[in-house]
């Protein structure tokens, strides 16, 4: 039930279904990959320098940062560490406010946690009180996402801190996979000084365009990260990923350029959906969730027929009739909007 299903894509389609960087990685990343030597490929990777560079980029110390094989591996490590050290005290529950990124349930289930999936509010907003109600001594880990995936809506800082305070005996993963696009982060927030149970998840898959190379990071208090480091393999980040991440975090111009593309794409999508009278959520991320209701199958088919992959989110709790569209390079977004207009007008 919680086994992650890879969504299907077809050959040469415009990929607007997985929130990837639709421009690709920085050209400097490609140059760094091409410069990888035979020895680098042959030797076990050393990523201390990459960790230091990422930590500096995120504004924290290297000992507060662990690089992982994508944030997916970080999620699994958090779930594993949370259960490993809490199970004997009877804390075996994973609290997941829905709708949520699939990997939380997949990973929590993999480590034998009991899943406490909180049904969504009708408008898919974050209910602090309902999350608080679900937390007790039996809680081992809480998964929060801001901006949320699939809605793209930010969770208020106060809500996150209130939950983290209530769940002090548990690990609280605050998944910030999309904060590059919202330009908000809890990293460096002074309130975290008294909440060492909070671990922040980041990824270089989305804004930096390294999804194919797999680099994520966990940020937290060194004492909190220690049991997480223990459950991670020593060479999670491979030599190519190391070369890529070092180049990526140093190419600020490319990153800034892409963020502006996403800002503009998101605005174009909001305008188009409003014009087409389609309800959507005010996303702060690089995608927009829209409600097409009973037209959603036609929209999926119509876009697929025009070579555009978007993500059917109908099967997520509370998301019947919803489709998630990646906001990437402006030209890609414009192509999607033109196709969407055709499909919806034809359906009228
Ligand atoms: C994409 C995504 C991740 C995973 O990122 P990877 O680094 O590619 O493993 C984690 N959390 C959320 C919410 C995501 O959308």
Distance between the termini: 37 Å
Instruction: Name the shape in a single word.
Output: globular
Total number of β-strand segments?
Answer: 13
Helix- and strand-based class? alpha/beta
CATH superfamily of the largest domain: Type I PLP-dependent aspartate aminotransferase-like (Major domain)
In the predicted model, the low-confidence regions spanning at least 5 consecutive residues are none
Please state how the strands of the largest beta sheet are arranged side by side.
2-8-7-6-5-3-4
Number of helices: 13
Q: What is the makeup of the main sheet? A: 7 strands, mixed
Which strand-content bin applies to the residues?
A: 15-25%
| Bound ions, cofactors and other small molecules, one mention each | pyridoxal-5'-phosphate
Just name the CATH architecture of the largest domain.
3-Layer(aba) Sandwich
Question: Helicity level, as a percent range?
Answer: 40-55%
Q: What is the CATH first-level class name of the largest domain?
A: Alpha Beta
The ordered string of helix (H) and strand (E) elements is: EHHHEHEHEHEHEHEEHHHEEHEEEH
**How many structural domains in the coordinates?**
2
Look up the CATH topology of the largest domain. Answer: Aspartate Aminotransferase, domain 2
Mean pLDDT, as a whole number? 96
Rg over CA atoms = 20 Å
